[in-house]
Amino acid sequence: MGFDTRIFMGKTGRPISYNMHSFHKIVKKRDFENMKKWKEAFLYLAMGAMLIVTGFLAVRETAFFVTSRQAEIKKTCVVIDAGHGGDDPGKIGINGAAERDINLQVAQKVKMFLEMEGIETVMTRKDEKGLYDSGAENKKVQDMKRRIAMIEETAPEITVSIHQNSYPEEYVKGAQVFYYKDSPESKTAAEIMQKSLKRRLDPENHREAKANASYYLLKKTSTPVIIVECGFLSNREEAAKLAEEDYQEQVAWAVFMGIMQTLNAGK
Ligand SMILES: [Zn+2]
After folding, report:
1. Ligand 1 center to residue 267 CA distance, Å?
2. Three-class DSSP category at 89
3. Domain chopping of the chain, boundaries
4. What is the distance in A from the centroid of ligand 1 to the CA of 3?
5. pTM for the whole structure
6. Distance 106 CA to ligand 1 centre (A)
7. Which residues of the chain have pLDDT under 50?
8. What pLDDT digit, counting tens, does each position of 222-247 carry?
C-alpha cells in the first residue's frame, strides 16, 4: 500500500510530536497527566483515520482489480469441454483406451497452451469424474445439463468440446470438426479448426467441417461451440498415436492454434 506514514509520524520521524506542536499550546495549562490522556486520544484518532484510509484504498484497489479481470474474461475466455467422464467412458479404442481419458489429457494440454497466451480458460471437468451426482436418476442427462449451464454462465467467445471418434470399419481415420447447423460463428470456427488439424496432424486428411443438427451440446448453447473429434479409436494406427503423450501434445497444439485463429478472426 503506497501509504505515507510521515503524516502520522511527523516529518522528524518522532511519533506525533510534529503534529502535536500547536496542540501543545492549547493545552499547556493542563497538568502533565491530563496532557498524556489528550495525547493518547489524539493517537487513537490518528490510528482510526489511518485505518479508514487504508480500508478505503484496499476496497478501491480490489474493485479495480475485479473490474479489469471481468473485462479480460469477457474479451478472451474459452471453455474447454473434455467429453464423457465417470461411468461414461465414451468410445473404447481398438487398443482398450477409453475416450474419456484421452479427451481429458488433450483438454488439459489445450488449457496449458491457452493459459501460456494469457487466455482465461474454464474446464467443464478437471478430472476423470463426470458432472453428475452419484444418485442421479439419469446421469447422462444431468451431466450434459451441467456442462451447458457452465457454458451459459461463462459465456465464452468459444467452447471447444474434445472427443474421439469410432467406426465399425477399421480403415476409417482422421480428425473432424462439427458445428451447429444454425450458427454461422460455429461454422467459421469449425472450418478454421478443421484446417488447423489437417495442416498440423495429417495433410492427407480430406475431411471437412460438418454441420450437425442434433447434438445436445451444440443445440442448447447460445455461444459458439465446436466439437473436435481428434481421431478414430477404431483405427489401430490412430488409436496408438492418441494414447501417446507426444501426439496428444501435437493434437492440443493444433486445437490451440485453431482457437487462436478463430479469436483473431473475430476481432
Ligand atoms: Zn465422445
Report:
1. 31
2. coil
3. 6-68, 75-265
4. 56
5. 0.72
6. 13
7. 1-27, 29, 72-73
8. 999 999 999 999 999 999 999 999 99
